[in-house]
């Protein structure tokens, strides 16, 4: 007689979807009034490209709308994500609530897609063939999918990609990535018959294949992390399906062609040169060489895994050390750990080929999850140096593989310990406790995002010697006329970096507004000593000179600012106005 328990209770797919949506909504219910922070200011608040749809009709016009080369080229390479920001702006202006609601909807959709990924993989020929293990059932498979999805939707590490509005690029790319992947698997399932022979292709089957291809293309135009999608689709094909290898490769060709979208977009927009410049800037600013970045990423990836297991001390802006040699103990030990983890995945895959061993098939899913984790992280954690060594939002897509691997391995261990009474109920109760704890932690983490001061104070507690969070906190105070607090933070930065151009420029602006013109001049000169081509500082120095009646010096600074930046109309107007005044006085 089959006993009734928690596993049997959670057997309805609609009920599963409801639970996932409800828990995810509760976890992020306190984020809707969170302000724009960090990169949101640059990519949303002051970005003209999302405020007029003409730039999407003709992306070439973007070059005339903004001066920032990074913004222009990311607009072209990540046009899908920018389009959603433009929709938010069209219907809600700069009210953060609409942006947060959209991000949450994307996250909830991703959680449901993760559920479908797991269910679909467990329906593939590898699991449903004639040697299917005893005890496998749709109810059991859907319960596995439920807990994988719940871990994904409530884990606090996901807040970096959901609550941080600009990281919509990450979560939206993940949506298209998962949609393409699950559509391909469903297409293969709908077309599959025993022995690997394909059945007649119907309208639904063709739609799924097209949806998979289109979603892959959209993912490539949302963020570069989608580059690995064809690799994971191919891995799924050869790990879980059967049939003639040549025919299977032919089916994958259109998906592999989508990998050309990213490099071709960069070449067409001229962004390749910018990306190369950014890489050079990264090498100079974060890691001295590509090898330094790679060595550091061994440590970073271990940190990512630790965060997934134990999400404590989360940080928006880590002050992460750069490791310059492989034989640093931290790097070497991390490398060994990663090699052992990858090796374990390969070994589990090998074990899963021995179909005569009872209950061994679940290990194929564990191996696939480990592969997913490493492959999806490879774009941002490899030899290509990025300016920032670590960001929690980079875990968003990779975490899917982690949760699949962990949950499937737990299921395998439970099946091997089949003699334990009420094993299903005990495991379900334990997982419910874990999901509840993670949900509470995520809700608490989101409280940090309620205003900029609390966010940057949280970062400074964990990265006290990093300039960027202190600079952002100072700017927050400056923007709210809390100038004493702003100057205090700026002075702390100068203790770390006495030549920080932005700090000297901002302090000069504060002193100018307070009528302390001599002190403002000192600060503007300090900025120009480090960066002589800083047009804004020249213009501001000219304004300070003019306020003191030093008109000749002011005119020279305005002229220099206009020369350095021909598009700096304010400086040009200041020069013409003052030149006319000085010339009139001479007459």
Short descriptors:
587 residues; Serine Threonine Protein Phosphatase 5, Tetratricopeptide repeat; disordered N terminus
What would your notes on this structure say?
With 587 residues, this protein is mainly α. The chain folds into two domains: 16-450, no CATH class; 465-586, Serine Threonine Protein Phosphatase 5, Tetratricopeptide repeat (Alpha Horseshoe). Helices cover 71% and strands 0% of the residues. It contains 30 helices and no strands. It is elongated, with a radius of gyration of 28 Å.
Beta percentage is under 5%
How large, in whole angstroms, is the Cα Rg? 28 Å
The secondary-structure element order is HHHHHHHHHHHHHHHHHHHHHHHHHHHHHH
Count all strands and give the number: 0
Bin the helical content: over 70%
| Quaternary structure of the protein | single chain
């Amino acid at each position: 007689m089959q006993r009734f328990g928690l596993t049997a209770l959670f057997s309805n797919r609609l009920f599963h979807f409801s639970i996932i949506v409800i828990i995810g909504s509760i976890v992020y219910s306190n984020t809707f009034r969170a302000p724009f922070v960090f990169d949101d200011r640059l990519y949303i608040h002051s970005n003209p490209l999302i405020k007029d749809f003409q730039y999407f009709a003709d992306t070439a016009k973007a070059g005339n709308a903004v001066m920032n080369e990074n913004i222009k080229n990311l607009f072209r390479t990540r046009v899908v994500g920018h389009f959603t920001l433009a929709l938010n702006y069209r219907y809600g202006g700069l009210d953060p609530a609409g942006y947060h609601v959209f991000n949450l909807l994307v996250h909830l959709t991703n959680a449901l897609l993760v559920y479908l990924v797991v269910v679909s993989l467990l329906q593939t020929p590898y699991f449903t063939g004639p040697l299917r293990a005893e005890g496998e059932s749709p109810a059991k498979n859907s319960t596995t999918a439920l807990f994988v999805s719940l871990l994904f939707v409530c884990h606090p590490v996901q807040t970096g990609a959901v609550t941080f509005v600009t990281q919509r690029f990450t979560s939206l790319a993940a949506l298209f990535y998962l949609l393409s992947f699950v559509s391909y698997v469903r297409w293969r399932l709908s077309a599959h018959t025993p022995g690997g022979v394909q059945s007649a292709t119907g309208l639904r089957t063709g739609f799924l294949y097209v949806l998979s291809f289109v979603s892959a293309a959209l993912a490539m135009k949302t963020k570069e992390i989608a580059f690995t999608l064809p690799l994971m689709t191919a891995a799924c094909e050869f790990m879980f399906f059967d049939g003639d290898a040549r025919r299977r490769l032919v089916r994958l060709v259109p998906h592999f062609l989508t990998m050309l979208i990213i490099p071709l977009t960069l070449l067409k927009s001229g962004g390749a040169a910018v990306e190369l410049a950014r890489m050079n800037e990264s090498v100079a600013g974060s890691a001295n060489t590509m090898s330094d970045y790679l060595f550091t990423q061994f440590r970073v990836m271990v940190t990512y895994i630790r965060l997934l297991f134990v999400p404590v001390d989360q940080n928006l802006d880590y002050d992460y050390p750069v490791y310059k040699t492989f034989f640093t103990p931290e790097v070497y030990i991390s490398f060994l750990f990663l090699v052992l983890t990858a090796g374990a995945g390969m070994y589990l895959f090998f074990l899963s080929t021995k179909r005569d061993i009872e209950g061994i098939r679940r290990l194929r899913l564990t191996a696939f999850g480990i592969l997913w984790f490493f492959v999806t992280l490879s774009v941002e954690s490899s030899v290509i140096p990025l300016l920032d060594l670590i960001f929690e939002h980079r875990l968003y897509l990779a975490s899917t593989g982690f949760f699949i691997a962990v949950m499937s391995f737990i299921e395998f261990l439970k099946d091997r310990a089949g003699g334990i009474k009420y094993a299903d109920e005990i495991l379900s109760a334990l997982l419910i406790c874990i999901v509840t704890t993670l949900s509470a932690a995520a809700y608490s983490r989101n409280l940090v995002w309620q205003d900029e001061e609390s966010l940057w104070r949280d970062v400074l507690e964990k990265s006290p010697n990093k300039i960027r969070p202190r600079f952002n906190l100072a700017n927050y105070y400056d923007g709210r006329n809390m100038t004493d607090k702003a100057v205090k933070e700026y002075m702390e930065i100068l203790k770390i970096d006495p030549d920080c151009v932005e700090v000297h420029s901002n302090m000069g602006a504060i002193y100018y507004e307070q009528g302390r013109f001599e002190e403002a001049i000192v600060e503007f000169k300090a900025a120009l000593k480090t960066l002589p081509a800083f047009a804004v500082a020249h213009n501001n120095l000219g304004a300070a000179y003019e306020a003191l009646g030093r008109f000749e010096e002011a005119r020279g600074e305005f002229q220099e600012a206009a020369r350095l930046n021909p598009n700096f109309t304010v400086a040009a107007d200041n020069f013409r106005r003052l030149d006319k005044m000085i010339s009139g006085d001479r007459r």
